Input
Amino acid sequence: MPIQNPHAALFARIHADSTRMEADLAAWVAMDTHSANKQGVDALGALLCTRLEAMGFRVAELVNGVHGRTLVARRGPRPTDVSGGDDGPRNAATHPILLLGHMDTVHAASAGFNSLQRVEGSTHAKGAGAADMKGGLVVLLHALEALHAEGLLDRRALRVVLNGDEEVGSPASGELIRAEATDCGLCLCFEAGRVADGGSTFVTRRKGMMRLSVRARGRSAHAGVEPSLGASAVRELAGKVGPIEDLADAATGTTVLVGTFHGGTAANTVPEEATLDIDVRFDDDDVRQQVEDDLQGILRKPVVRDAAGRPRVATTIRERVFRPPMEASVVSEGLAAELVRLAAEHGQVLVPEARGGSSDAALAADVGCPALCGLGAVGGAFHTRDEWVDLASLPQRTVLLARLILDLGLVPEPRK
Output
């Protein structure tokens, strides 16, 4: 006689809820939550806070004057209540599960596609942040709501952290994420999965990220009357772009990109100021340190000089954001294998992958919390106008998360 699924009603509820999932996704994509739009990020946060509180989560907010608020929601016992003491081994069975997501996107409203648009003839839809990661927020929230409706939410101690500054490196929320992860036994992060042969991916390893904001300050002058009195900040930084990007190394998987460049005030004025932003991705911290040292050398070497060879433009690093690599551990590799097995029981093919993009899961892994990422909706073309999400993956990934919360890391009971 086939064994009856003890949670069949839960999974049926999730599949029946797919229309509401799409409605939530459409509503959230329509909200401008660009990282620079604090008001928009906070508006989405207020909606999510209300729904978390309706499930009995205790929600606090980290308020920042620059970036959107970060929500921290808790439900269930503290680790000392479930494991016998803070000195006990941290694991997914006895310690809280940390669920990570972000509300901000890289797309500003001016991009002109802040609505969810179905792609004819497919289950795909396009929209700003549809996959990265508003689709992931849908998966996270609806899994919790389904567990709550079925009376199953008390099976695990849960923490949810939703931040509004992930796309800019989590400068305000990073330390909070580390602190929340310190006594958790598992971190699940809801960045998007990707299509793989016969299924989709999740992430077990990620590159580290370093972002530097550089400012050059020279001297303005009239371009037609006395240009020689000026010192062009644009010329100074433009001369450094090539050497900076030449630090990329395919052999080590290191990428170095100048992603933004701004300077000058008018075509007829020698530009007094210019700025650029550098993005570095790396697998090894020794490599990162070498790249940073080399960058410092390039920035110190003047391009615009006087007759004696002295620099006429001052170049400084205004801001530095750093996120470590997300490295796999014996525990996380074991949990990844268990995840693949659980997914197969639901007819899903999951493929673990290493990915170049960084995520906040790396912050949890860096403080010893085993982390798995890429568990949100499946999509592609991230950070572009063609970003898409597979709507069919919303209930699939929601079922998977509900199953993970119930069973991941727990020793299966013998079947009779």
About this structure: The domain at 8-206+325-407 is CATH 3.40.630.10 (Aminopeptidase).
